[in-house]
Amino acid sequence: MTGPACLPMYDWPEERGAVDAFWAAIRRRSGLELPENLTRPADEAALFALWRDPSLVFVQCCWGPISLGLVPGLRVLAQPDYSATPGGRGRFYRSALVAREGDAVPVPDGPGAVIPKAVTGVGMLAANARHSMSGWLALCEDADTLRERTPPTRRTGGEVAETDRIEIIETGGHRASIRAVAEGRADLAAIDCRTWALALRHEPCARDLVVVGWTAERPGLPYVSGAATDDKTAERLRETLIGMGCHPPQERD
Q1: Distance in angstroms (rounded) separating the CA atoms of residues 193 and 242
Q2: From 3.40.190, 3.30.70, 3.30.40, 1.10.3470, which CATH number describes the 94-218 domain?
Q3: What pTM was computed for the model?
Q4: Each residue of 87-101: pLDDT tens digit?
Q5: Which of 60, 107, 121, 217 is found 20 to 30 A from 92 (Cα to Cα)?
Q6: Which fold has domain 5-80+221-243?
């Protein structure tokens, strides 16, 4: 018996059929005995428990928790292709910086970030989580003034972390961050470009926002397996994903 499988990163209710179909294709093409149904964690605690489960056979994870050592032992299998998404290029993705007003900024031609000066003076920033690469860590790396002004603490449950010149509300999810900006509870949010594309399709309030900047390109959210997955299964999953258009694994620098 294999362990659980999960595809939580873009599993919006409106996209559930497509997510299930993608998993069915992986099962069919791999020829492996994999779980028929995906596990869908009820909250962040359950998701982290799943990421830390050695028997986990397949999941998508963010580089943030991996790089911070919050989910040790995961085996990177492959990375999805983001080319079909504005802001994506092959294995790379970036985050759109969204606000209620400002000058619209197109996707940069090069791999670097475009961080508007207004970001350094934002009053309230919505982040899905402090351990999220796309929602917080990438922005900190690209806008040094934010890193200097914001303590490296983490809070969950929508609490506000106060600093000397900026406040951060942790929303628990990119969709919630978009709503926080649209409703005036936050001034800015960094949203994974694929999630932003989903929002433009499925979240009406997203159409009232403007993209005022972009973080730099970074390797996208990898598909991974747990530490107990045997080499043969891991290699077959890797071959299947690459055959479906994914890229060989490439960790962040």
Answers
A1: 22
A2: 3.40.190
A3: 0.89
A4: 999 999 999 999 999
A5: 121
A6: D-Maltodextrin-Binding Protein; domain 2 (3.40.190)
